[in-house]
Design brief:
Chemotaxis phosphatase CheX, Chemotaxis protein chec, 6 strands, chemotaxis, single chain, CheC-like_sf, 183 residues
Amino acid sequence: MTLAPDAVGRPPQPRPAIPALIDEATVESIAGETWIALVGEDEVLVPIPGDLPEDTLSAWVDVVGPWTGSVVLTTGRQTAADLTRALLGEAAPELLDHEDVADAFGEIANVVGGNVKAAIPGPSTLGLPEVGPAPAVRNPADVCRIEVCWRGQPLVVSVQGALPSLPVPNTQHDNPHQNGASQ
């Protein structure tokens, strides 16, 4: 077996932080397009910051690939319920249960996350949506975050890296022979 000359002796490449791969304008565009597609043309996200209420709910999907992390949407619980009603339209039950909200909010996170994954270079996989308290930001340098409002209520979209990061594959072998042959 022959190793490619450029792979021999090179140190492993560090995983890129998300700001090197995607910017706030792209995340805002993805979120806005998703909103229009799923919630309706009259339902837009306004790019102005707002303070989240104390009672929040988050929905997220994990992205695993050259960059690994989560795409997290966070808003107030009441806003998540209002969003569920807007998403379901006339099919919305009079009384929403937690599962209705989790399914609808999780679906929006899934679509936003899938589009973020598609915008990041390299092959990646997307996990299933999860809903609950927001996952902790583990590395502030590995976050791309936007703050928007929907119907006057704040919503945060955070693309945040997972730490500790996954190990980088080692291309060097511990074999003492220069060509990598076994004894």
